[in-house]
Amino acid sequence: MTGPMPSAPFLPLSRTVASELEIYTYGGCDLELQLAVARSPGLQVDESLLVTSQDGAPVPVVEVETPHHGRLHLVTLPPGFTQVRYDAQVRGRADVPTHDLMDLSLYRRPSRYIESDAIPGFASAEFSGLSGKDLLVAVSSWVGTRLLYVPGSSGHMDGAVDTLITGAGVCRDFAHLVIALLRALRVPARLLAVYAPGCDPMDFHAVAEAFVDGAWYVVDSSALAPRTSLVRIATGRDAADTAFMTTVSGDAELTRSLVSAVADDGLPLDDLDQTVALG
Fold first, then answer.
1. What is the radius of gyration, based on Cα positions, of the chain?
2. Domain that holds residue 21
């Protein structure tokens, strides 16, 4: 491919997203939840978050701002079952993400699940001579054609190198490997947790976001959902930063989860030869 790639056209969108969790705690516990849509400039978000104990009493929630307009919700759950319900109507498209030098430095570095320092020679050999948007397309295609999407094939401790060796995984594994290859080539890249209309199987989805030619672009080597319909939840170095539920103290078991995401006006087409800036 030669010459600059076109960017996806501006599309006003309306999306309805929701998530439900049922959590059982044995003696009470402190949790961190990342379910809420990021408050990216340009989006209109009408939402509700309700956490209730098994007797129907509301559980207090504290909101903490996270990088790139994300939001973390802190809850202390009583013993027994707790229901968590998040609903949002999301309208419009987010402004193009901004960046600073610290972002670019941070997202070039190896991290817990992305051992990019272990594969620079491999990445250089596979993608020699490519840069910019051509490199993004090549890495996305390479990962998408060499990995099998197999639910349950990876463990929660597996990183990008494990995925490269085994050749299978789920969306977070695809994204981790994309990011590892890009960081090995000194391209800043990070993980996004998103709501993904059209995703099959429907769940929280993970994609990569990479910085080339002065802007951040979404890379989804799994091609499970149109990139222009995605809704950002959390942004981080890898899945350790973007988990939808993290136990801080105590003992909790996720007994049920349900995620839904719908593009209200129908799913847009996704031309993989175009770049998409999610916002």
1. 19
2. 14-92+250-257
